[in-house]
Amino acid sequence: MPGLRPTPDRVRETLFNWLGQDLTGWQVLDLFAGSGVLGFEALSRGAAWLGSVEQAAKTAGQLRASAQSLGVSPDAWQLWQRDALVWLDQAATALAGRKIQLVLLDPPFAQPALFDGALARLQAAEWLADAAWVYGECAAQMSLPSLLGWTLHRSGRVGESQFALWR
In this predicted model, what pLDDT tens digit does every residue of 79-129 receive, in sequence order? Predict the structure, then answer.
């Protein structure tokens, strides 16, 4: 689909090496889901549940088709077709008591305010599990923010992308 920028295989491999490969039982949230490759990879590594937030109708339809072709159980995956920042403002209700261990944050690079806006909302999120992880991907020219109360675990760069994992 035009405009989608799936996370490269090399970056995806790095992320799951950092996390330790086995995500058994984890609750995962994929914001700005796009192709869904990161979230579906988390499910393949044992995550118990994946929530995906994607605003674009065509892309959300592609996510549904991917989930079906991958045989993802409806109990293990939920899709919200909404603006991710608006969704984050109402996430406690949408998540209905879930505690999220991993947030995947990969908004369109052309809109850096989405990255900063999502991180600001995540800093105040009460629905994150203790010791939750936040993975973010953004344009290489952006400065990675310091998140109050969060530790930057690792970061890297590939091509025009940079990525980081906070805890």
Answer: 999 999 999 999 999 999 999 999 999 999 888 899 999 999 999 899 999
Complete DSSP assignment for 61-105: HHHHHHHHHHT--TTTEEEE-S-HHHHHHTHHHHHTT--EEEEEE
d(CA 10, CA 115): 22
Query: Is it the case that residue 7 has pLDDT exceeding 80?
Result: no
Q: Which tokens is 37 given?
A: 């490759």
Tokens standing for residue 24: 């058994």
3-state secondary structure of 55: coil
Helices (H) and strands (E) in the chain, counts: 6, 7
* CA–CA dist 19, 126 (Å, integer): 22
145-148: Cβ within 8 A, 24+ apart? 145/116, 145/119, 147/119, 147/123, 148/123
Token readout for 50 is: 């994946």
Q: Which helix (H) or strand (E) holds 51?
A: strand 49-53
Measuring CA to CA, which residue among 46, 7, 23, 21 is closest to residue 101? 23
* Beta partners for residue 165, in sequence order: 135, 154
